[in-house]
Each structure stands twice: as structure tokens, then as C-alpha cells.
Amino acid sequence: MIKKELLDIICCPESKADLLLDGDTLVSVDRETRRRYKIVNDIPVLLIDDSEILDLAEWESIMKKYNKQ
């Protein structure tokens, strides 16, 4: 599990937006990029080339779940 202290200092490497912990992934709160990053063995993989771009509906659903909309 990622500690809150780490979540407070890391950001999306593309947009520099905050990241939300969603299960075993981190999701950027930036609407334009909508990046999702994997967490492997409790280590965030913050490589743009290894990230996934969420479709708008899925990204909005995640933001709504965490009251970020």
C-alpha cells in the first residue's frame, strides 16, 4: 500500500496534476490527459509510455467516486 506521504508529493509526470489512488493504480485528476499508472509491488510505475489513457466516461466515473468532479 502506498503511504499518504508519498501520494502527497508525487504527481503525473505528463501534466503535473495530482494522482488519486484507485485500487492498485494511480489516476491523474487532469481531464485532458486522463492517465492511469500501475503500481507494481507497492511501487508506482510513473512512466508515460507504460501508462494507460482512460476514456472520458471511465475517468469521470473514477473522479465522481472520489468526489473530485
Overview features:
globular, 69 residues, N-terminal domain of TfIIb
Summarize the structure.
With 69 residues, this protein is of the alpha+beta class.
Tell me what you see in this structure:
It contains 2 helices and 5 strands, in the order αβββββα. The chain has 69 residues and is an alpha+beta fold. It has one domain: Single Sheet (N-terminal domain of TfIIb), CATH 2.20.25. Strands 1, 2, 3, 4 and 5 form a 5-stranded antiparallel β-sheet that branches. The mean pLDDT is 95.
Order of helices and strands: HEEEEEH
Count up the helices.
2
Low-confidence stretches: none
| Span of the ends, CA to CA | 25 Å
- Report the major sheet: 5 strands, antiparallel
Report mean pLDDT, rounded to a whole number: 95
Number of domains: 1
How much helical structure, as a percent, in the residues? 10-25%
Net shape: globular
Oligomer classification? single chain
- CATH class, named Mainly Beta
Q: Mind telling me which CATH architecture this is?
A: Single Sheet
**What is the number of strand segments?**
5
CATH fold category name: N-terminal domain of TfIIb
Radius of gyration: 11 Å
Structural class: alpha+beta
Strand content: 25-35%
